[in-house]
Design a protein that fits this description.
Blueprint: E1 3-11, E2 19-22, E3 31-37, E4 46-51, E5 58-66, E6 73-77, E7 83-85, E8 98-104, E9 112-120, E10 128-136, E11 145-149, E12 159-166
Antiparallel strand pairs: 1-12, 2-11, 3-8, 3-12, 4-7, 4-11, 5-6, 5-10, 8-9, 9-10
Length: 176
């Protein structure tokens, strides 16, 4: 049996914020899961993720879908893991994206695997979804996560919640 423990939650206030930081992540868990709901104050925005303040060594395979059809593409992207689709100021009012970032074995002394699934919500043809299987080519444990709005600020009520997952003796995961 495994357990999920909320490590920290950040909700952006009325003045907005360009960055959300989870620092001093404890090393006592097996995996990390970060749930996000963002909206930015500008057009065409993404959230940028970095681990331990390092901006290099990221890569992955992306599946991307946009619009009302099934125009999906895949690509190998050097730093694609760092670009997480957000809702922006031109999309349906008061609507936020939803997504998660999963980091198994974040505390190991080998390179880190990372996956994410994100969709921006929009009552129009331009809604998008991204699914990524990626990695961070670094042997350090993930001890901090910085999320930057790459253009504009995260608006009020944007949020991010970080959970630590402790694997049980059976290897399964149970939310308790």
């Amino acid at each position: 049996m495994s357990a999920w423990t909320k490590i920290a939650r950040t909700v952006v206030g009325a003045s907005g914020a360009p960055t959300i930081v989870f620092s001093t992540i404890p090393a006592s868990f097996t995996d990390l899961m970060l749930f996000c709901s963002f909206r930015t104050s500008s057009v065409g925005s993404y959230a940028g993720f970095t681990f331990n303040g390092t901006t290099s060594g990221y890569g992955g395979r992306l599946l991307f879908g946009s619009g009302s059809g099934n125009a999906a593409t895949t690509e190998h992207a050097t730093n694609e893991i760092q670009y997480f689709e957000t809702n922006d100021s031109t999309q349906t009012a008061n609507t936020f994206n939803n997504g998660f970032l999963f980091m198994p074995n974040y505390n190991s002394s080998s390179n880190k695997l990372v996956s994410y699934d994100v969709v921006n919500e929009n009552n129009a043809v331009s809604a998008q979804q991204r699914i990524l299987a990626g990695f961070w080519n670094n042997n350090a444990a993930i001890s901090s996560i910085t999320i930057d709005s790459l253009t504009g600020d995260f608006v009020q009520y944007s949020s991010a919640t970080l959970y630590g997952i402790t694997r049980g003796s059976s290897g399964g995961v149970t939310v308790s």
